[in-house]
Amino acid sequence: DGGITQSPKYLFRKEGQNVTLSCEQNLNHDAMYWYRQDPGQGLRLIYYSQIVNDFQKGDIAEGYSVSREKKESFPLTVTSAQKNPTAFYLCASSIAGLGEQFFGPGTRLTVL
Amino acid sequence: RKEVEQDPGPFNVPEGATVAFNCTYSNSASQSFFWYRQDCRKEPKLLMSVYSSGNEDGRFTAQLNRASQYISLLIRDSKLSDSATYLCVVTPQSYNFNKFYFGSGTKLNVKP
After folding, report:
1. How confident is the model at residue A100 (pLDDT cuts 50, 70, 90)?
2. Are A50 and B97 a contacting pair at CB < 8 A?
């Protein structure tokens, strides 16, 4: 079955640590995205990528970094510079240029 | 001004009721419109795309009003399982990339 997978489902981090969230898709989509969702809030765009080896900052990129070395993979690193990283992180993909986004099941990050 | 605005609700309705949500968008160049459903602590899932002529899928009807820049979702004969948050999504749809703008969501509670 085609889809998007994210791991881990739950992640706990100590203050000052960097953590990397995984996102993999086998939908052959060109575009991939990372969003953050806080309780009772909408989705806010962190980073997006249209093609391999290219990515752009979204609205709240500070304290985050990404890479896009393969079409299928778009990992997100939450660095110690991110002041308030506790949130629900969602990865999505779409066929660039048309259509809707498909989401992975999300990673819930908690900073202890 | 936000790109997409929704009434956060909650809308509390009895089973069998008809309920309607509206969503307004600010960019008149917006081209594609979607309604997503998000269950508590889960990822958003596409409910339906919204076409210029309006579209219907079972108990759900979506409409687009470009002149007034809003889209609507009508749910007839509400079921307990319709309880969720409904997200309005708008995109300008460039040639090779979609940047998706999400509303904060409207929460629906269907009561027995």
Report:
1. confident
2. yes
